[in-house]
């Protein structure tokens, strides 16, 4: 779903992801602080603030890179024209009543909703000159 933002030159694309692991509190706080921030600054912040948990850091960077690559491939968006419009994290507890082990029976899944604002630059055509 693409919709107009306040500035008519920007559009918003929403990505809904199911994250099969529990996000740390630090990661949730960091993700939710990225509203209206430039995409490449967000990647730097994740790499810096989550360097203590390298696996979680790598997973979140992969998620964000895949959304940016989607915009680049499908809409021709420049990497520097992508902004994080909003990120929401919703945790869903999942209970499996058929397992006896309490630790395995209660798992937490996370839904991550990422809204990216992007600006599509018009492609300028060079006029052909005949020599």
Which key terms come to mind for this protein?
5 strands, 131 residues, alpha+beta, five-stranded antiparallel sheet, disordered N terminus, Ribosomal Protein L22, Chain A
Task: Describe the model.
- The protein has helices at about 25-30, 40-50, 55-75, 100-105, and strands at about 1-5, 10-20, 35-40, 80-95, 105-120.
- With about 130 residues, it is α+β, with helices and mostly antiparallel strands.
- It has a 5-stranded antiparallel beta sheet.
**Uncertain residue segments:** 1-5
Number of strands: 5
Rg (CA only): 19 Å
Which H/E pattern describes the elements? EEHEHHEHE
Question: Roughly what fraction of the amino acids lie in strands?
Answer: 25-35%
**Overall geometry:** elongated
CATH architecture label name: Alpha-Beta Complex
CATH class: Alpha Beta
Structural class: alpha+beta
CATH topology: Ribosomal Protein L22, Chain A
Give the mean pLDDT: 83
Question: How many domains comprise the coordinates?
Answer: 1
Give the helix level as a range of percent.
Answer: 25-40%
**CATH homologous superfamily assignment:** Ribosomal protein L22/L17
Number of helices: 4
- Largest sheet, order of strands side by side? 1-2-5-4-3
> Major β-sheet, in short?
5 strands, antiparallel
Note the gap between the termini: 47 Å
